[in-house]
Amino acid sequence: MASAALAGTLQPAADGRLRRVLRRLRRQPASLVAGGIILAFIIIALAAPWVAPQDPLASSFLQVRKPPSAAHWLGTDEVGRDVFSRLIWGARTSMLAGLIPVLVALSISLPLGLLSGYGGGWIDMVLMRVVDAMLAIPFLIIAIALAAFLGPDIWNAMLAIGIAALPIFVRLARAAAMSVRAEDYVEATRSIGSSPLRIAVRHILPNMLPPLLVQTSVMAASAIIAEASLSFLGLGQQPPAPSWGSMLNAAQRHMAAAPWMAIAPGCAIFLLVISLNLFGDGLRDALDPKRG
Amino acid sequence: MSAPLLSVRGLRKEFAVGGLFSGGRGRVVAVDDVSFDLEAGETLGLVGESGCGKSTTGRLILRLVEPTAGSVRLRGQELSGLKPHAMISHRRDMQLIFQDPYSSLNPSMMVREIIGEPLQVHGVDTTPGIDRRVAELLALVGLGPQHMRRFPHEFSGGQRQRIGIARALALEPRLIICDEPVSALDVSVQAQTLNLLRRLQAQTGVGLLFISHDLMAVRYIAQRVAVMYLGRLVETAPTTVLFDAPLHPYTRALLDAVPAPEHGAAPRPLLEGELPSPLAPPSGCHFHPRCPFATARCAAEAPAVVEAAPGHGVACHHATTLPAWPGLSPALTHPVEPRLARLLARFHA
After folding, report:
1. Nearest Cα to B106, choosing from A120, A192, A111, A23?
2. Are A207 and B105 an interchain contact pair (Cβ–Cβ within 8 Å)?
3. pLDDT confidence of residue B337
4. Which of A101, B121, B185, B316 could form a disulfide with A223 if both were Cys (CB 3.0 to 4.6 A apart)?
5. Three-class SS state of B300
C-alpha cells in the first residue's frame, strides 16, 4: 500500500528545491562558516591516518605531560602520547558520536511521532505514558543504564545515547504532527479524498521537519558530550583508542600541571558543537518554505 | 422535477465539550435542524455572525465533520452514512475553498503538486500529461504556466486564493463550498476573486455554497441567501427579496449593521448584547433576548420555518405582524456599493 501511494506522487523537483535551499544558505555567512568548519572536521576525521603526525597510541615515558613544543604541537598526555595526533584520530569517534545517536533518535521518533500526533487514539495514549516515564529519568542515567546493559563498546554507547534522547524527539515530533494536522491544507487534501497514508507522508511529514532539525543540531552537541561521559565511565570508547570526551576526562586529573591536555579537546568540542548549532539554525531557516 | 444538486434536510451537529475535570460533560449544538436546497449553477449565500455554525455546515456537507443527524443528498444520492471508501467517488463532485489562503496551501509543495494532487488521488487520465492540465487550470484562474514550479510563499494572498480555486476546480466538481473565500483578502482583490467565481460558475455551471459574514459580497454573488443564527436557519429568501424586505428581526439587524458611507441618514440603532453562548442557548427562539419585538411566546416556543411567500422561508412567530422595515441604508441601495462598483467595473475587463 505504501508503494502504491508513493508511486502516485509527482516526482518532486529535487533540483529546484535543493537549489533554493543552497541559495538561501549562501545568504547566511555565519552558517556558511559553521558548515565549512564541520566539513573541515569531517575531512580531518576521514584523513586521520595521513594527517596525524604521530601514532596516537604510542606512549613514551620520557615524554609524559610535556607542554606544546615543535615535536609535540599540542603537548603530550599522562602517558606521553601526542595530543595533536590523538585529537585528529579522536575526531572520528566524536563525529560519529554526534551523528549516530541523532540518526537513531530521528529515524525512530519520526514514525512514532507521526503515529502518535496524527493517528492519536490509544496508541498516542500508550506512547505518551511511556515517554513520560522515560522523561522522568535523567537523560544520562538512561544512557548509562542502556550502555551498561548492552556492554562496553563505542557503538553500543552511541545506540544507548540515541535511545536515551528518544523521549524528547518523540514529544517534539508529536507536537509538530499535531500542529500540522490542524492546518487547512490537511483538511483540503482530506476533502479531495486522499488516503490517511498519503496525508501523513506527503503533507504532514515534510512540514514536521523544520522544528526537529533544530533539535537535531542541539542533540548532536549533547551526544558528543554524553559520549565523553560514557567513555569516562568506561562504557564508551575503550582505551587506549582516543575520543575527545575520553581525552577531556583523562585531562581533568592533570588540570593544574598540564592544562594543554584539556584545552585541545575542549576547544575541538566547543568548535564542533557551536558549528553544529549555527549550521542547524541556518538550515532550518533555509528549509522553511515560508521565508522568502 | 429532477432532484436538486444539493439537498440538505434536518442537518444537526452536536459537539461534546468539557472533559474529566470540568464537572460533567456538556454539549454544543453547532448546527441545529438545517435544511436547504441548492440547484446546479446557483449560488446560495449562507450568512451569520462568527460562531453561528456556517463553516460547520459546510464541513458537514463534505463529511469532513461527521453529522450527528440529518440527510445530505447530492443529485439525489444520499451521502450521510456512506463508508469512507464509498464517499471517495462523491468527493470528486464536491470541493472546498478556504478562508485563509496562507494556511490552505501546503508550504512544502510546489503549485503543480498542489493542483495536481486531486487529479492523482482520483487517478484522472491526464493525457498528454499532468503539467498540461495544471497549466489549463492555472490559466482558468488567471495565472500562467510559469507559476507551476513556484512555492505558495512566493505568491500574494489573492494569487494564493486563486491557486486554491484552481485546486478546487481540478476535478470539475458540481458543487463548491466557499468558506469565507474573500474575508482574508484586500477589498480590490475581493472584487477580483468574486468576479472570478462568477465567471467560473457561468463557464462550468457549478453550484456554489457561499459562506460569508460579508453581506455585500453575498449580495453581489448569490441568487439566494440563507441567514443563520446560533446554528439555526432563521430566514431564506431570494437575494433581492432578502435585501429589500427582510422579515426576520435578526436579518434586519444584520442589514442595519452594514457599515455605510455617511449619507445624511440617522444611524440605525444597532443590535444590543453579545451572541449568546452556544453552550447555553436561550430558550424558545434563540434570538429573543436581543430581539426588539420579542414576546412571552418567543421565550417559550421555538418558531418553525414558515413560507411567507414562495421561496421565502422565515422562522419568526411575528413575521407577519412586524412593522415595515425602513429599507436598506440609502447609501447602500445601489445594486452594489459605489466604491466597490467602481472597482468591479475596473476588474470586469
Report:
1. A192
2. no
3. 60
4. A101
5. helix
| Distance, CA of B182 to CA of B191 (rounded, Å) | 8
Per-residue pLDDT band for A111 (boundaries 50, 70, 90) equals: very high
How distant, in Å, are the alpha carbons of A196, B69, B209 from that of B58? 21, 15, 8
Q: pLDDT digits over B203-216, tens only?
A: 999 999 999 988 88
The neighbouring-strand residues paired with B232 are B229
Query: What is the four-CA torsion angle of B238, B305, B178, B29, rounded to 10 degrees?
Result: 160
The CATH architecture to which A15-287 belongs is: Orthogonal Bundle (1.10)
DSSP string, A74-122: T-B-TTS-BHHHHHHHHHHHHHHHHHHHHHHHHHHHHHHHHIIIII-HH
Nearest 5°: the CA angle B241, B246, B247 is 125
Return the ∠ at Cα B103 (arms to B97 and B105), rounded to 5°. Answer: 65
Q: Is the pLDDT of residue A25 over 80?
A: no
Q: Which residue has the cell 411575528?
A: B318
The crossing angle, in degrees rounded to 10, of helices A166-181 and A154-164 is 40
Terminal Cα distance for chain B, rounded: 38
- Residue-wise DSSP of A184-240: HHHHHHHHHT--HHHIIIIIIHHHHHHHHHHHHHHHHHHHHHHHHHHHHTTSSSPTT
Interface residue of A23, A187, A190, A291 to substitute, partner B, most B CBs within 10 Å? A187
Q: Where are the domains of chain B?
A: 245-259+269-348
Structural domain boundaries in chain A: 15-287
Residue to substitute from B96, B113, B115, B117, interface A, most A β-carbons within 10 A: B117
Interval A55-110: pLDDT, tens: 888 888 888 888 888 888 888 888 889 999 999 999 998 888 888 999 999 999 99
Instruction: Give the burial class of A205: count Cβ atoms within 10 A of its Cβ; 0-12 exposed, 13-18 middle, 19 or more buried.
Output: buried
Measured CA distances, B10 to A96, B5, B14, B231 (Å): 64, 17, 13, 12
Coil vs helix vs strand at A36: helix
Whether residue B263 has pLDDT greater than 70: no
Whether the pTM exceeds 0.95: the reply is: no
Residue B153: band (very low, low, confident or very high) from pLDDT cuts 50, 70, 90: confident
pLDDT digits (tens, 9 = 90+) for B161-171: 999 999 999 99
Report CB contact under 8 Å: B117, A289. Answer: no
Number of H helices, E strands in chain A: 14, 0
Question: Least CB-CB distance to A185: which of B104, B123, B154?
Answer: B104
